């Protein structure tokens, strides 16, 4: 049977001191409900369930509207796992997993009326743990790419970033064979 908790978070659009290392340690080892609702409480519960006697796989679903802070919430959850899993200083797995973000964002993000860097696809991040519950790797997959944006954009919105980046680079010798210079004025 599926069971779990729901956390409603609001993007404050600024850095707050509620995601620091000391807050991670404050939530680590705590039972759900002993402290204020927080993404670290959700991450701790998932980590605890994974590391329990049954060793069941866990999922955290981060959902919301454009600009709600889904990517940032996922980063905080990964930071929690890297810290409590003993990997934060050893391999900096969070940085390694998120290193692919600029490439993925160029291909899958666009400017919308709500967000200049809005993700137009879903991300599935699978984090692997060893028998001591230390992070040993991660996979990131994309799904549900908003293909309609390739041929149509609403007023005041833009296509995927990659098209603008390619056109801005059209004059570089390595891009000359792509024939992008004629599209430069159309997209910019």
Automatic annotation (TrEMBL):
Gene3D superfamilies: Kinesin motor domain
A Pfam family this chain is assigned to: Myosin_head
Domain of life: Eukaryota
Myosin motor domain segment(s): 1-188
CC annotations in GO: cytoplasm; membrane; myosin complex
Entry keywords, A to Z: Actin-binding, ATP-binding, Motor protein, Myosin, Nucleotide-binding
GO molecular function: actin filament binding; ATP binding; microfilament motor activity
PROSITE patterns given in the database record: MYOSIN_MOTOR
Extent of the signal sequence: none
InterPro entries, per database record: Kinesin_motor_dom_sf, Myosin_head_motor_dom-like, P-loop_NTPase
SMART domains from the UniProt entry: MYSc
GO biological process, one term: actin filament organization
Family listed: Belongs to the TRAFAC class myosin-kinesin ATPase superfamily. Myosin family.
Protein's UniProt name: MYO5B protein
Organism: Brachypteracias leptosomus (short-legged ground-roller)
């Amino acid at each position: 049977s599926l069971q779990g908790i729901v956390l409603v978070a609001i993007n404050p659009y600024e850095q707050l001191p509620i995601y620091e290392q000391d807050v991670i340690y404050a939530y680590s080892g705590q039972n759900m409900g002993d402290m204020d609702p927080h993404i670290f409480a959700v991450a701790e519960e998932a980590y605890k369930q994974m590391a329990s006697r049954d060793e069941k796989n866990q999922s955290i679903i981060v959902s919301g509207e454009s600009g709600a802070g889904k990517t940032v919430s996922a980063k905080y959850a990964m930071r929690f796992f890297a810290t409590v899993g003993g990997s934060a200083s050893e391999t900096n797995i969070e940085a390694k997993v998120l290193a692919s973000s600029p490439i993925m964002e160029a291909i899958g993000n666009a400017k919308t009326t709500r967000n200049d860097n809005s993700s137009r696809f879903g991300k599935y991040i699978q984090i692997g743990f060893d028998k001591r519950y230390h992070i040993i790797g991660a996979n990131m997959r994309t799904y549900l790419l908003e293909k309609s944006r390739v041929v149509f954009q609403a007023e005041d919105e833009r296509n995927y970033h990659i098209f603008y980046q390619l056109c801005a680079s059209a004059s570089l010798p390595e891009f000359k064979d792509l024939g992008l210079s004629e599209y430069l004025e159309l997209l910019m």
